[in-house]
Design brief:
This is Aminoglycoside phosphotransferase domain-containing protein. The chain is globular, with a radius of gyration of 20 Å. The chain is of the alpha+beta class. Helices cover 41% and strands 17% of the residues. The chain contains eleven helices and nine strands. The model has no long low-confidence stretch (mean pLDDT 93). The chain has two domains: 3-106, 2-Layer Sandwich (Phosphorylase Kinase, domain 1); 114-330, Aminoglycoside phosphotransferase (APH), C-terminal lobe (Aminoglycoside 3'-phosphotransferase, Chain: A, domain 2), CATH 3.90.1200. The strands form three sheets. It has a five-stranded antiparallel beta sheet, sandwiched between helices. The chain has a two-stranded antiparallel sheet with strand order 6-9. It has a two-stranded antiparallel ribbon with strand order 7-8. It has helices at residues 3-19, 70-82, 114-117, 124-142, 161-174, 181-192, 233-239, 261-271, 281-303, 310-317, 319-330; strands at residues 24-30, 37-46, 49-58, 90-97, 100-106, 201-203, 212-215, 218-222, 229-231.
Length: 340
């Protein structure tokens, strides 16, 4: 029995319980992407009609030590959905689907692959409005009371949100147990230039083009919440702007679709804040270090034999490119460097 058939057999009792005894699974297909989790399209016919769902399922590895399990990721999506954030409707957390935890949510129609979002002619209008829409959606996420997300990791008592983010980066790099001088230099710069602290917010943790669904009208929904936590808003405001997430459109700093102005303006208007690119420079450096560490840890899953994968190996190839970007950002001659 192949994997799809085994998963379909494991899901059938839940489908009948959820949608009625006549419900049946008519299709199950592994979707592209997902270096740390599987995503499966799940087609179900019910007495009320056909449903196109998505199942997120563990693969056995994690990009970061602090990554959420499927139970907590599902709980975050439930929280966002109830708050009116554009996310898929959550259906159920399933602790054991053929031996691994999973959850089921509604499928959203649209494009998710970043390289297509930044180039496809039919998405030209979407690219014009996407930065503003993503800024407004992020403001809605950060507007959820952090106390409602108390089950997520966050700063210790008396610890600032930015300092907490830095501590996590240091801990993640320490697990690698190999020297990465450019990353260590970047961490030293962050320690020496800690920004002003703010109360923690619910952070998505991976907010960028490539983790959203986009159609011709723009943003449809926000996906991939496995790195959600309580942290500084600057984390989410900059992660989608690093070079790695411009998909070859290097001059368009926000996700390869536009500069940062429209995104920040929409966020600031919705939240009543006044963030500037200069204020966020520290977090841009931190976001690059975060992604560099992720490429290292993902490649190690392949190199160690834990999970042989060409996709994981290709992520390791990106490490040097991000190190170069970090060194460029640390150079006082960089045009956006805030100075000391």
């Amino acid at each position: 029995m192949n994997e799809a058939a085994a998963l379909g057999e494991a899901l059938a009792p839940w489908a009948r319980e959820q949608f009625g005894t006549e419900a049946r699974i008519t299709g199950l297909a592994l979707l592209a992407g997902g270096a740390s989790q599987q995503s499966w399209r799940l087609d179900i016919v019910t007495p009320a009609g056909a449903l196109a769902l998505v199942m997120r399922r563990d693969t056995g590895g994690r990009m970061f030590v602090a990554a959420l399990g499927r139970a907590d990721e599902f709980a975050v999506i439930e929280l966002a959905y109830k708050a009116g954030v554009a996310v898929p409707r959550p259906y159920a957390y399933l602790p054991d689907v053929h031996g691994k935890a999973a959850f089921v949510m509604a499928g959203l129609e649209g494009e998710t692959l970043g390289r297509r979002i930044v180039r496809e002619p039919n998405l030209a209008n979407a690219r014009r409005v996407l930065p503003q829409q993503m800024g407004s959606a992020l403001a809605a996420i950060h507007g959820i009371a952090a106390t409602e997300a108390a089950f997520l990791a966050g700063p210790a008592a008396g610890e600032g949100a930015a300092a907490y983010g830095l501590r996590l980066l240091e801990q993640e790099l320490a697990t690698v147990a190999e020297p990465y001088p450019a990353l260590e230099l970047g961490l030293a710069w962050l320690r020496a230039h800690l920004p002003a602290e703010l109360p923690p917010v619910l952070c998505h943790g991976d907010y960028r083009v490539g983790n959203v669904v986009v159609n011709e009208a723009g943003l449809v929904g926000v996906l991939d919440w496995e790195f959600a936590h309580r942290g500084h808003p600057g984390e989410d405001l900059t992660f989608g702007a690093i070079r790695a997430w411009r998909f070859g459109e290097a001059g368009k700093r926000y996700g390869g679709v536009d500069d940062m102005a429209a995104f920040l303006s929409a966020y600031n208007t919705a939240r009543g804040t006044h963030f500037t690119e200069r204020e966020l420079y520290w977090f841009e450096v931190a976001s690059n270090i975060k992604w560099a560490i992720a490429t290292v840890t993902q490649a190690r899953r392949h190199l160690s034999g834990q999970e042989p994968s060409l996709e994981l190996a290709s992520l390791g190839r990106m490490t040097a490119e991000i190190e170069l970007e970090i060194l460029s950002l640390l150079d006082p001659r960089h045009p956006r460097h805030p100075g000391d």
